[in-house]
What does this fold into?
Amino acid sequence: MAQRIDVKDLNIYYGDFKAVADVQMEIEPRSVTAFIGPSGCGKSTYLRTLNRMHEVIPGARVEGTVEMDGVDLYADSIDPVAVRRQVGMVFQRPNPFPTMSIAENVLAGVRLNNRRISKGDAQDLVEQSLRGANLWNEVKDRLARPGSGLSGGQQQRLCIARAIAVKPQVLLMDEPCSALDPISTLAIEDLISELKSDYTIVIVTHNMQQAARVSDRTAFFNLAGTGQPGRLVEIDDTATIFSSPRERATEDYISGRFG
Ligand SMILES: Nc1ncnc2c1ncn2[C@@H]1O[C@H](COP(=O)(O)OP(=O)(O)OP(=O)(O)O)[C@@H](O)[C@H]1O
It folds into this structure.
């Protein structure tokens, strides 16, 4: 299921403003890649180009290519809605649909895709997705209750269950733990490590320890100056980035000297 991502010569714009310049990156399937860097360097902007969500903002556009298993997501023949199905996303704040039950939340993406499924298949998918998100045991007796009644950490795992229910190949996570307490954060980190056997995972995080704990590869982004675009400074094995990065800016950032 997991897919390889190849990004070539990617420039990302909001209208005339170039937010991110000249990204080249290869991401292996069944791996976790962390994006780190100071605020405003374009981590979230770049992440959103990997499932064509960037362009939903008026005036926003990209140049360059993003290939998944060799297919350019930005080719004319590609339907952006199909891309968003293939590349799931989990956001900073857990965002379950508040009036929907836990089970309906899990099925929400599947229903949006107009996939008809029998009641039995729906029940199986709910269980399988909640198990996949390590939430089943905590909610199996209250599947008909609203998703909004769960704790923040449970809601985030519910959102992950909703994302994996549509069987994506890639999972993008934009600071998925920033609104969570340390125990819930660890639960999500454990889950990320488990999901890696099935998915290609990319996570934006401000938390260096988290990047070090969950990722195989780490990409450091930086800004050359105010008004300048963000750039990928280096990407390498996480152990290398945190022990002997090639670039001075990376070392300064991970050792807390700026950002
Ligand atoms: N909707 C938008 N319209 C115009 N400019 C935007 C928009 N969203 C972000 N930007 C700009 O793009 C640049 C990159 O922002 P982005 O949020 O991607 O950075 P980031 O590295 O994810 O930051 P943070 O760590 O603070 O979340 C910033 O200069 C930001 O002001």
About this structure: Residues 5-95+171-254 form a domain with the Rossmann fold fold (CATH 3.40.50.300). The beta strands are 5-14, 17-27, 32-36, 60-68, 71-72, 87-90, 170-174, 200-204, 217-223, 230-237. The mean pLDDT is 94.
